[in-house]
Amino acid sequence: MDNKLQRTKIINIIHNDNTRSKETSEILENKLREYGYAISYEFDHNAELSICIGGDGAFLRAVHKHDFPYIPFVGVNTGHLGFFHEVNPDNINKFVENYSKGNYNIEDIYLVETIVCTRASCIELIGVNEIVIKGIESKVIHLNVSIDDNHLECFSGDGLIISTPSGSTAYNLSAGGSIVYPTLKTLQLTPLCPINSKAYRSLQNSAIIPDGMSIKINPEYRDENSILIIIDGKQFKYDNVVEITFKLSDMTLRKLTFHSQNFWSKVRDKFI
Question: Fewer CB within 10 Å: N-end or C-end of the chain?
Answer without folding.
Answer: C
